[in-house]
Each structure stands twice: as C-alpha cells, then as structure tokens.
Amino acid sequence: MDLDAVDPDDRLDELDRRLVCALQIDGRAETGRIAEVLGVSARTVTRRLARLLGSGTVTVVLMPDVRDRAVGALLLRVRVLRGKVETVAHALAARPDVPFVDIMLGGSEVSAVVLTDAGSRDRLLYGQLPATGAVLETDVHAVLHAFADAGHWHSGHLAPEQVAALAPPAPTTVAPATDALDRSLLDLLGRDARRSHASLAAASGAPESTVRRRLHRLAAGGLLRTHATVDPRLLGMAVDANLWLDVPPGRLVEVGTALAGHPQVHGVLATSGPTGLMATVFCEDHAALFRFSTEVLGPLGVARAETAIVARAVKRAGVRLVDPVRR
C-alpha cells in the first residue's frame, strides 16, 4: 500500500467511503442492514461491496487477539542497511505472529507489531534479527495498555446515529476457552471475516446451526472484532504517521483517552520505553499533520513528540498488502 503511488483520481466516491466506514464499524454487518442504515438499495450495496471486496480494495479480517499470548504485543523499530529495507520488511511480514509491518519514510527503518510467546520472542529478538547482517539496531517496546487499536477506528463518513445502528453489541462475557472447531472458524474468518454461516459450515464440516451458535458465543466473548483494511489515500488521507509521545506518567490515562477519541487517530498504546505513549494518525497531508501536532498534541501538554511517517504499509491486521506500483 504505497500512499504516493495512488492516483488521486482513483479515490473512492462518497457512497463507497460510506460503505467502507460501515465495514470498519462492523465487518460482518449484513448487506441488508447496511442498506437500511445508509438509505440505499440492497442491490446497490451488494454490487458496490462485490466490487470493493472482489478487487481487493477492501479486505475484512478478524483483528488479531492478544489475550491468549503469554507475552502480549511488542512494538519493533528495526533500523536496517540502505537497500535492505524490503528484504527485512517482507521477512517480518511472512511471520504469522507479526500482523502489522510498515516501511518508514527514509528507507532505513521498519516498524512492526509482534504477538508471540516468550520462546518465539526470544528467538526473534536474540537470534534471528541479530543474525541478519542487514539489521543495524532494534528497539523493542512492550505494549502496556491499548487505549484504541486499528479495529476501533473508522473514517467518519457516517452520522453518529448510523454508527450506533451498525455497531455490533459489546462483549458480554470474558473470552471463552476455544476448541478445535472454534479455532477453525476463527482461522477462516481471519482470512475473510465476511464469510457466511453456510460457507463456514461447508469449510469446517460442522452443521450451520452449530456454526451460528459458536459464532454467537465467540462474539459475546469479544473474539469477533473485525478490521477493514483499505488504502487510506482512497479515503483522502495521504499521510500515515507514528507519533512517539513523551507524556508524564500521571497524565498517561488522560492523554491516551483523549487521543483515542480523536477521528484522525487509528491507534493509541501505552508502551515501555522513554516516551510512554505511541499514537498512529491519518492526515490529509503534511500540513494537516502539523496542525494535529500544534492544535491537538499541544493543548494536551505533550512535552515532546517524535514523528515517524509511514512510506508504505506492508501488512495490516495480518493481511499482506500489494504494492500498487508492482501490480
């Protein structure tokens, strides 16, 4: 997903943007429900979604779940030799325990999210990365708390009442223990979260009634959160940036909560390390990023902000992305 390679003329029209927003709110929302909330015909929604999903413009998957991990999430900043950034980025993206990979502007840093157990973590950090001659330095930050992640963000093209109408019910139980069938269903939805009950039943070999019951149980436990991956420039946002924010410990909750509610922010994490917070933001252009820094971060009392701009997203929510230049 190379933001600089997308022709502005290819940006989605207003209805497509509203449909993308609906999928961001609930990736498994039924076509009829989306049509009712948006006030358009079911036939139009069906046709538009078929084009958006079939072309790969939008991909809907389950958000990776970190609650069954012994370690939790880690943020990596890997500095590499010039000319080797693609090799390192794609090697990380090939790992199933790395759901997010970005190449940063400048061509010498890769940013990644790692979800793994202690053994795999240690092999990656102390064995595999140091043994790679292209890697110069690796910074590792543990995620201590998520105020918001990519699954919470939507592009803001729907009215508040439409968002409320599409929002899935909040989890009502703790995450349930999963058996082989549950894991099979989660794996299938992890590749395509819009698969129907009938399709899931056929692929898993379970009766459709059983599939419906299992999905209801998994949803109640918060395991069916979805993520709609789309090139943000198609939504009019050409700049994707990671902000490492120096915030006093006593204000982490206040600042993290405030940023989590901002429409440009698609992730806010409290982390280990010198800064305390990392926020990811979408902006229309660099001028808008400057305004975000001065008009949003400034009044929140952020003492210092390191801004790292994403040149190209390689993997998002477990989905390997195709570089438009190389299609």
From TrEMBL:
Residue span(s) of domain Transcription regulator AsnC/Lrp ligand binding: 245-312
SMART domains xrefs: HTH_ASNC
Entry keyword annotation includes Protein biosynthesis: no
Entry keywords, A to Z: DNA-binding, Transcription, Transcription regulation
Top-level taxonomic group: Bacteria
InterPro entries in the cross-refs: AsnC-type_HTH_dom, Dimeric_a/b-barrel, Tscrpt_reg_AsnC-like, Tscrpt_reg_AsnC/Lrp_C, WH-like_DNA-bd_sf, WH_DNA-bd_sf
Domain HTH asnC-type: 12-52, 179-218
A Pfam short name: HTH_AsnC-type
Presence of the UniProt keyword DNA-binding in the record: yes
SUPFAM superfamilies the record matches: Dimeric alpha+beta barrel (SSF54909), Winged helix' DNA-binding domain (SSF46785)
Annotated PANTHER family: LEUCINE-RESPONSIVE REGULATORY PROTEIN, TRANSCRIPTIONAL REGULATOR AZLB
Protein name, UniProt field: Lrp/AsnC family transcriptional regulator
Organism, scientific name: Kitasatospora arboriphila
Higher taxonomy: Bacteria, Bacillati, Actinomycetota, Actinomycetes, Kitasatosporales
